[in-house]
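Tutorial, part two.
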Amino acid sequence: MVVDLHSPLPDSDNQNLALDKLRVKHKPSLGDAGVHGRQNPEAAGSDRHPFRFEIGELAIGVPNPVTWSVMKLAATSDRWHKAEDHGLGEPHRNFHREQALKHAQDVCRVVAMVTPEERDRASDVIAAVRTSAGFGEAADISDRLFQAPDGWGIRTVSRA
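Running the prediction step on this input gives:
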C-alpha cells in the first residue's frame, strides 16, 4: 500500500511545523517515528470534515469532497499543460493527456459520490477556503476546462 500525504501550507505562527521546499514536517524532528506531508496549497481545508474509514486496524482519513476536488482540478490542469508541451515527445504528451483526463474524471466521481451529509458540510469548507489561492485557481480551472464552450471536460452534448 502506498500512502501519499498532502499537507496544506502551515500558518507562519505554527511553531510545531517546519516547511521546506517540498515537505511539511514536525518541528523538532521526530526522526524515524515521524512522517511528513508534501506541501500542497490546494489541500487547504483538508482538516475539515474528512471522510474516515478503517482497513484492518488502520484508521484512514481522506479530505472532504471540496478539498479533494480542488486538488484534482489542480492536478488536471498541471497534466493538461504538460500534454500541450510540444517539446515533449508524443508518447509523453499522450501520457500526460491521459493523466489529465483521469484527474478530470476523478473530479466527476467525487462530485457524483457526495453524500447528503457531505453536501450539507460543503458550505463550511468553502467558507474556510474561499480566499485561498488554491480555491481561486480551482475555480478558474473549472471555468476554463469544464465550463467554456470549447472546454474539453466531460461534456459531450453541446448547450443549445
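Strands lie at 6-7, 17-19, 23-26, 36-39, 51-55, 58-62. In part three we will examine how such features are distributed along the chain.
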